[in-house]
Design brief:
single chain; alpha/beta; four-stranded parallel beta sheet; 4 strands
Amino acid sequence: MYHCGDTALTLEMQLLAGRVDVMLVPIGDNYTMGIEDAARAVAFVQPRVAIPMHYNTFDVIRADPEAFRRHVAGRAEVEVLVPGQSHRVA
């Protein structure tokens, strides 16, 4: 599992290519990556599952997780969780 935290896109993410099952990636844009950079991060890391995070808790970080899903476009399964929901690794 790779939790990106509050970060921006970095080239070092490529070092994780193919070594991550689940990636939690911020998409809120103002303080972290936006949707396009987050999708690029998914391309760098190549996780099996990408879970968008750090969005829609404040107006300044409004983002559409379905737009993120479209940007990832089959490079990983995108699982959008609602507050209180969990992800279980199969």
